[in-house]
Amino acid sequence: MKAFIKAILKSKAGTFGWIFLILFVFISVLSPLLTPHDPTFANLQLRMAPPTISLAGLGDYPLGNDQLGRDMLSRLLVGSRVTLLVAASAVILGGIGGVLLGLISGYFGGWPDRIIMRLADIQLAFPLMLLALIIVAVMGPNLRNLIFVLALTSWVRYARIVRGEVLSLREREFVVSARAVGAKAWRILLKHILPNAITPAIIVGTLELARVIIMESALSFLGLGVQPPNPSWGRMLADGRGYMYSAWWLATFPGVAILLLVLSVNLVGDWMRDYFDPRLRGRK
């Protein structure tokens, strides 16, 4: 742990990314306790009230109110929980499915390999956002379907990378020895190959998290993601786009939140790639 923290502190970009990512995680977990107001309560008397920040301190609504008089700060805090929950769930599900398919494809070869890789090629040739729009439009916009769609669009990267690792590992001495003593295929995959092939998948998962956050925000922006009255950063952007000149804070604050979260995830992903690759370690 000391070596891990020391490696983080040696990289300015990595330190910045880890600090903001941990901060966002804590905010999302503690958001029900941090919200000063009910994020779904509409008070038309405070409709589009500007942020109340001055030298004297913060007001009751430091980030202002939206077009229905709802507190922007409370909606941002709760929206972080929704965004991270959807993104993390989709990355975990897509990662598990992609890693399993990559193990099967790389170890067994033959027709399983051909079928899995042809499915991957077909999905890569199809625009992922269009695929997500079609599936969500057919199945209906709700949280469960949104997670399913985002997981479906992310398994390919895991499968291709793990397959490449397995192809180089399955002929190594320790795998051949395990096969020679009669170890079953599932035992070889889980005990000998998976621990050696999981690191690239973890790095891909970190970088994939940023892409999934963008896709979730885009689908919510189009009205096919998290449905009102539940707050979502993408939906808040969509609600604020018509008030850019009269109420700039409606779109600015959720846009900045998405920017900082995606930037921190990308920085952490780049740092993890450098940390786990001995050839790149210590350059930054």
General description of the model:
The chain has helices spanning 2-10, 12-34, 72-108, 110-125, 128-139, 143-152, 155-169, 173-180, 185-221, 233-240, 249-276; strands at residues 53-54, 57-58. It has a single domain (13-29, 71-276), classed as MetI-like (MetI-like fold), CATH 1.10.3720.10. Strands 1-2 form a two-stranded antiparallel ribbon. The chain starts with a helix and ends in an 8-residue tail after the last helix. It is built from eleven helices and two strands, in the order ααββααααααααα. It has 284 residues and is an all-alpha fold.
List keywords for this structure.
11 helices; MetI-like fold; two-stranded antiparallel sheet; 284 residues; elongated
Explain briefly what this protein structure is.
With 284 residues, the chain is mainly α. The protein has a single domain, classed as MetI-like (MetI-like fold, Orthogonal Bundle), CATH 1.10.3720.10.
